[in-house]
Every structure is written in structure tokens, then in C-alpha cells.
Amino acid sequence: GLPIASNLIKGGYELTVYDINKRAMDDLAAKGARTASSPAAVASAVDTVLLSLATPPIVREVALGRDGVASGTKVKTVIDLSTTGATMAREIAEALAKKGMTAVDAPVSGGVAGAVKGTLAVMVACARPLYAELEPMLKNIGKVFHIGERPPPRSRRAPKWWCSALKRASIRRS
């Protein structure tokens, strides 16, 4: 997540970030990001939130749990860069839709090296007009592919290199 957020900052985006790893937040703050006290605080400060987390249960907790993104007051779009699978993506999308938020399933491939270089493969599932809005921002982290409106079925045991590290970042164009 730290390299993804760093590439967004390099691309001219203002970020508000939260991570359980204070060092990661401090590193991003030194690059100009604002820090928040929780995922809900991030989602109350920005229109678009990106999640890059290690496991589906963590994604569910950060998105829907106590002080999660769904508790935010400003967010409209939640982009999950993690590999959660179609079932979890639908569950989160349905819960966020009830709050007036749009979920975008966008797992990445390329590992930490790809995240650092900004060469991840980003497989985005959402409506075409929303994809057109998000693509310029997502190009800062890699090559972006629109794979349709809904996430395709994926194995519950996704390849290890699809799993991004521990950053919850949000973006707002400067």
C-alpha cells in the first residue's frame, strides 16, 4: 500500500491515509499526505477511498466494521485493490450501496516491485462511465484493464502476488 499511495502522491493527488502501521502513515505524511485516525475518518474527508489489504476478513472489517469506511460521511466510491473474490466483493458492494456508496472491485497483480515501479496490472470491475472517471487516477499505479461491470469469479486461494500490503489510502485530486 505504501508504494501505491506514494505513486498517487507523485501523480498529483492529495491523500488522506490511515494504516495500523504508524510508520507507514508517517512516511506518507512526510510526502504530503494527511493522516486520519480511522477508516471512517478517511471516508469522512474524501470522495474516493482505496483499500489495499491482506485478506478478505480484513477488507470486510475495514469496509463495514466499527469505524469502517461505511461509517464515513463524504465517501462516494470505494475501490478495493485487494483480492477478495466475487462473493466478498458483492457482499461489500451491497452493504455500501445501502449507504449510497459505490464499490469498485479492482484487484492488482505485480507484487511489491510492481507497486514501487507503478507497473501493477489493475483489473477494474465497475460501470463503464465510472471506469472512465477512475482510469486516469489508477494509471498512476499501473496498467489498467476494464474487465466488465461485475467481478469475475476467482479462486478463494488467490495467488500470493495479487495481495497488496496493508495500506488504506484515499485520494482527492489536487
Describe it.
With 174 residues, the chain is an alpha/beta fold. Helices cover 36% and strands 25% of the residues. The strands form two sheets. The protein has a six-stranded mixed beta sheet, sandwiched between helices. A three-stranded mixed beta sheet has the order 6-7-8. Helix 4 links the parallel strand 3 and strand 4. Helix 4 packs parallel to helix 5. The radius of gyration is 14 Å and the shape is globular.
SSE string, helices as H and strands as E = HEHEHEHEHEEHEHEE
What is the makeup of the main sheet? 6 strands, mixed
Mean pLDDT reading: 87
Number of helices: 7
The structural class is alpha/beta
Using the CA coordinates, give the radius of gyration.
14 Å
| Helix content, binned percent | 25-40%
Count every beta strand, where a strand is a DSSP E run of 2 or more residues.
Answer: 9
Gross morphology: globular
Q: In order across it, which strands form the biggest sheet?
A: 2-1-9-3-4-5
The parts where pLDDT drops under 50 for at least 5 residues are: 154-174
Distance between the termini: 20 Å
Q: How much strand?
A: 15-25%
